[in-house]
């Protein structure tokens, strides 16, 4: 409740501060040397003064567009005259370099000469051996089945904890032994349970 009241007060204070800063304060009206307000301004700390007359802004001057410089198609290979500065030399070097790059891109592509390969005929016996090895590697080998003989006092979650480190994994053991039990409470001493790999 106190938090709600503090949040309400903070909201009112922040809103009033924003209104005061934005200039949405009521303007003062001067009548016969008395200052009155059109509406009360509770948070206004500045004295009410008459507003100065607005100064008209100067008229904008029209901007005339300058024509874009035209580029020359050829690059002169002579040294620039002595009256030019270092920036002109740099620009000239950049222009020459860019024309060199463009001319490199415009050159026709020359395909690389193909490398001759030795003409070999595949050995059918070697191909068959490689294929059978790939098939042998791709065939999954069955996982060895583990079994556990239930002892007196064992529970299915306890057996799961012994093998998996988690009691939740007892469902895997229950699903792997549907012929022996349908409920975790069906466990009896002497049962041989299949413990699947996770």
Describe the structure.
Among the domains are: 10-44, no CATH class; 146-195, Membrane-bound Lytic Murein Transglycosylase D, Chain A (Roll), CATH 3.10.350. The protein has a two-stranded antiparallel ribbon. Strands 3-4 form a two-stranded antiparallel ribbon. The protein is mostly helical. It has 5 helices and 4 strands, in the order H-E-E-H-H-E-H-H-E. The longest helix has 21 residues, at 2-22.
Order of helices and strands: HEEHHEHHE
- Kindly state the number of beta strands: 4
Point out poorly predicted stretches.
none
Number of helices: 5
Brief descriptors of the model:
single chain, 198 residues, mainly alpha, Membrane-bound Lytic Murein Transglycosylase D, Chain A, two-stranded antiparallel ribbon, 4 strands, 8% strand
Question: Layout of helices and strands, plus pairs?
Answer:
Blueprint: H1 2-22, E1 28-31, E2 34-37, H2 86-106, H3 124-138, E3 146-149, H4 156-164, H5 170-176, E4 192-195
Antiparallel strand pairs: 1-2, 3-4
Quick rundown:
The chain has 198 residues and is mainly α. 37% of the residues lie in helices and 8% in strands.
């Amino acid at each position: 409740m106190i938090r709600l009241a503090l949040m309400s007060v903070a909201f009112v204070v922040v809103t009033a501060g924003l209104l005061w800063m934005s200039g949405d304060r009521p303007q003062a009206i001067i009548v016969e040397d008395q200052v009155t307000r059109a509406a009360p301004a509770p948070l206004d700390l500045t004295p009410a003064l008459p507003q100065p007359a607005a100064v008209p802004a100067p008229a904008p001057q029209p901007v005339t567009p300058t024509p874009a410089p035209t580029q020359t198609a050829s690059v002169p290979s002579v040294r620039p005259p002595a009256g030019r500065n270092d920036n002109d030399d740099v620009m000239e070097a950049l222009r020459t370099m860019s024309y060199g790059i463009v001319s490199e891109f415009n050159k026709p592509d020359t395909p690389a000469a193909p490398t001759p390969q030795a003409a070999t005929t595949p050995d059918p016996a070697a191909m068959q051996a490689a294929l059978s090895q790939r098939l042998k590697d791709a065939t999954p080998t069955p996982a060895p089945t583990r079994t556990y003989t239930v002892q007196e006092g064992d529970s299915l979650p306890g057996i799961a904890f012994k093998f998996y480190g988690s009691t939740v994994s007892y469902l895997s053991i229950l699903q792997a032994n549907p012929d022996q039990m349908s409920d975790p409470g069906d466990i009896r001493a002497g049962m041989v349970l299949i413990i699947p790999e996770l």
